[in-house]
Amino acid sequence: MATFLRLLSPTTIPKDAPFLSSTLVPLQNPSSHSFFPSFSSIPTPDARRLCFKAQAVSGAVHGHSDRNDLVERPWKTNDARLVLEDGSIWRAKSFGASGTQVGEVVFNTSLTGYQEILTDPSYAGQFVLMTNPHIGNTGVNPDDEESRQCFLAGLVIRSLSICTSNWRCRESLGEYLAKRNIMGIYDVDTRAITRRLRQDGSLIGVLSTEESLTDEHLLDLARKWKIVGVDLITGVSCDAPYEWIEKTNTEWEFNKDYSHSENFHVVAYDFGIKHNILRRLAAYGCRITVVPSTWPASETLNLKPDGVLFSNGPGDPAAVPYAVQTVKEIIGKVPVFGICMGHQLIGQALGGRTFKMKFGHHGGNHPVGNHVNGRVEISAQNHNYAVDPASLPAGVEVTHINLNDNSCAGLACRELNLISLQYHPESSPGPHDSDPAFKEFIQLMKANKA
Question: E.C. number, please (predicted)?
Fold first, then answer.
C-alpha cells in the first residue's frame, strides 16, 4: 500500500529544550488531510525552535500494524544523524564511510564539480553541504583530482544519484568516499540547514552512524570541538620539495592564443595547493618547484626563483605565524602571487588583519569587481577568512572586491611586485574569467627580470 506523508504545522519547542527532532504522529485518516501545513497556525518564527512533525505510514492503515519487523523494506532507512552545536538534530541516510566525525559545516553553491571540491585541501576540517540538490550523477574519475587525497571531514547532500552517466566515470561517488574513509549523508533538508548557516553563521557539527551514541553525547562533542586558531596547513602540505611539470591537458586548454617565449622558475609554497594551480602555471611556461609550508625563506631565495607563489589552504591564517614570517622575508625580494590563504598571509605580512567571516564564500558563482580593468568576473571561491582592507598600510591597493558583500578579494603593491587574490583563478571547478591573473604574474616576473 502506498506510503502516506502528512506535514503538520510547526511546533514551537520550549526555550529550555536542548534539541530539535522529528516526531512521529499517528495518521488515522490520510485521505482527509491536506499535504500542506496550516500556515495560519504558525507562531512567530524562531529558526532555532521550529520543527515539522511528520508521519510515514507504510502498509496497513486504520489501526493495523506496519509489521516492519517481518518485511524488509526495499529502500534505505535513516541510519545517520547530523547534530549541530545549536542543538538541532538532522536525521539522514549514510553513504561512504561509517562512524563518527566532527567538523565545521559550510555550504557550497557550485552546481557541478563535486570531485574537485572533495579533493580541495582548503576544506580540511569541514563538512561540505552542497546546495545543488542532485549529486553523484557523473560519478568520479582519476582526471579531476585536485590533490593526493580527500581532506574534508564529510559531505552533506539532498539527493544521491542512484546511477552514473558520464563517459569518464570509473566508480560511483559512494564507492569513492568509502575507499577514502569519508562520511556522507543524504536525504536531509539541505535548504533548511543552509538557511540556518546563513542566519547564524558556520556551525560545528557531528556526523554519526553509531546508534549507541546519544544525541546529548554528540552535541557535547560538537560544542567542545574548535577550529578557530588551529593550524590545519601542516596536515595538508607536502613533506619535501618536488618538481611539477604537468600542464593543462590539451583538450582542456582554453587559452590557446597565449605564447610564452621565456620559462620562469617559480617556487610554490604548498599550504594545501590545488593541482590545477600548478597546471595553469606550467601551461604559461613556468618551471615549478613545490616546497612544504615550513620551508625556510632563506632556502627559497637560495634557489634564485623568478617568482614565488603562496597557495590556497585551510583554516585560520592567524594560526600559522611561521607562514606569515616566511611571507614577510620573501616579499620585496622577488615577485609574489598569493591565492586564497596565500592572499590572507600576504595581508598579515603587510601589517593588516584578517577576520573570520559569518559563513564564508564557497562556490563557483561569486561576482568579483576588478578595479584594475573595470570588469566583473565570476569566480570560484572557498574561504572562511578575509583581509580587513582598513588595516592595510599606505601603498597597498585593493584591486578586487566581492560584489556580494564588498569584502576584499584582491591586493596589489606595485613597489613590492606583489599581487594576490582571495579566490581561485585556476577555476577548477568554476569559470575561467580570472585566468588572466596567471598572465599578470608572468608579466611581473618578466618586468623584474628585465
Answer: 6.3.5.5
Tell me the helix, strand and coil percentages in the chain, rounded to 5. 25, 30, 45
Answer yes or no: 424 catalytic. Answer: yes
How many helices, marked H, and strands, marked E, lie in the chain?
9, 23
- Rounded distance between C-alpha atoms, residue 70 and residue 160, angstroms: 28
Which domains, ranges and CATH numbers included, belong to the chain? 2-55 (no CATH), 80-224 (3.50.30.20), 242-449 (3.40.50.880)
Residue 361 bears catalytic tag: no
pLDDT for 5 equals 38
pLDDT exceeding 70 applies to what percent of the chain?
A: 83
> pLDDT-derived band of residue 255, with 50, 70 and 90 as boundaries?
confident
Output 384 or 30, whichever has higher pLDDT.
384
Q: What is the mean pLDDT of residues 316-324?
A: 97
Q: Is 340 a catalytic residue?
A: yes
Cα angle 389-438-347, degrees, rounded to a multiple of 5: 20
pTM (two decimals): 0.83
Which listed residue (150, 286, 340, 408) is catalytic?
Answer: 340
The one catalytic residue among 362, 383, 400, 424: 424
Cα(16)–Cα(406) distance, rounded to whole angstroms? 38
**DSSP E strand stretches across 201-263:** 203-208, 242-244
